[in-house]
């Protein structure tokens, strides 16, 4: 994919977070020594449970909260020393549409561009609306739009001043399943515009669906940043379920060293193994089963989901 090639060769990161900590008044340390580099054109998911520090990190990048330690650069601009230039590079998509319900799509999006002091440019607004399939709704009042369209207007507003980085704070919070899927596809389409997307989410499924890379944040620490596929490969365990011909009374003694679970109905054995290990142990397991005279009907393998990986990681940190 061209996007990946571009991100790998681009020298200057679009976002550089260096050793950032945030202590709120009262002494609560919401972020601890966070380092993060985002390259142009990536879709990055910041994944973490409630209170992990996701919103705090976005607020610091957008200059909405003060850094306690460290530095943040957006497209080379220091967010503290060069706030306006840094902020102009960022589009922030909030969760709720708070603008005038009686305003038209066109006006509200054009107005957002003006807020950043950018000159009027109908061609840009047209391009943004078209990219979000809102063009035929441009004269509609906001209150007449469906939930999905309203969310797309929020994105259009954030893109109106042509930012380099788009932050989506929990893009699917409080939406139904159909709308969630619609949002996933909208974010996927944003790739075409070349904008870098950073989204926060509680949902592993969401990170898995949309992101190229995933950062896991827990209790103010960025505990892991990895390409999605790499994360699955590195940390993924697989499960092999062997469906038996006849119920098995107990796991045979010569299989005691394998991590095996016998199902309640005693008709299936599940073996978990590490996909990255030099030997998975499957061949010897099969041989020993045959020696024990255990016959089976079927074999099913299952890759552990990012959800299981995530829960494991956060638990390890407790
Ligand atoms: N202004 C503040 N003063 C003191 N503590 C704060 C402030 N804002 C946030 N916190 C605390 O910092 C921690 C991180 O909050 P933050 O909102 O960044 O988490 P989050 O990962 O965005 O959570 P959520 O997914 O629930 O939005 C929380 O424990 C929160 O209570």
TrEMBL record:
Entry keyword ATP-binding: yes
Keywords of this entry: ATP-binding, Nucleotide-binding, Transport
Domain of life: Bacteria
GO MF entries: ATP binding; ATP hydrolysis activity
InterPro entries: AAA+_ATPase, ABC_transporter-like_ATP-bd, ABC_transporter-like_CS, ABC_transporter_ATP-binding, P-loop_NTPase
The ABC transporter domain, residue ranges: 15-244
UniProt name for this protein: ABC transporter ATP-binding protein
Keyword ATP-binding: yes
Listed SMART domains: AAA (SM00382)
Protein family: Belongs to the ABC transporter superfamily.
């Amino acid at each position: 994919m061209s996007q990946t090639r571009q991100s790998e060769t681009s020298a200057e990161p679009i976002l550089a977070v260096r050793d950032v900590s945030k202590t709120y008044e009262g002494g609560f340390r919401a972020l601890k020594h966070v380092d993060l580099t985002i390259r142009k054109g990536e879709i990055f998911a910041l994944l973490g449970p409630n209170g992990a520090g996701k919103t705090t990190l976005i607020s610091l990048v957008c200059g909405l909260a003060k850094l306690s330690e460290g530095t943040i650069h957006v497209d080379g601009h220091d967010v503290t020393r060069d706030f306006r230039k840094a902020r102009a590079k960022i589009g922030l998509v909030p969760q709720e549409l708070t603008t005038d319900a009686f305003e038209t799509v066109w006006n509200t999006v054009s107005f957002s561009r003006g807020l950043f002091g950018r000159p009027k440019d109908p061609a840009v607004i047209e391009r943004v609306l078209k990219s979000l399939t809102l063009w035929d709704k441009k004269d509609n009042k906001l209150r007449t739009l469906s939930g999905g369209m309203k969310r797309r207007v929020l994105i259009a507003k954030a893109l109106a001043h042509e930012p380099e980085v788009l932050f989506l704070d929990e893009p699917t919070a409080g939406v139904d399943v159909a709308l969630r899927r619609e949002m996933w596809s909208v974010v996927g389409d944003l790739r075409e515009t070349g904008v870098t997307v950073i989204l926060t989410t509680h949902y592993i499924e969401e990170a898995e669906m949309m992101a190229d890379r995933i950062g896991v944040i827990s209790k103010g620490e960025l505990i892991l940043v990895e390409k999605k596929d790499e994360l699955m490969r590195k940390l993924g365990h697989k499960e092999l379920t062997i469906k038996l011909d006849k119920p098995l009374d107990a796991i045979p003694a010569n299989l005691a060293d394998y991590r095996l679970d016998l199902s309640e109905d005693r008709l299936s054995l599940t073996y978990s193994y590490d996909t990255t290990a030099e030997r998975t142990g499957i061949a010897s397991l099969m041989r020993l089963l045959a020696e024990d005279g255990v016959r089976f009907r079927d074999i099913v393998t299952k890759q552990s989901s990012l959800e299981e990986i995530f829960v494991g990681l956060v638990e390890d940190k407790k």
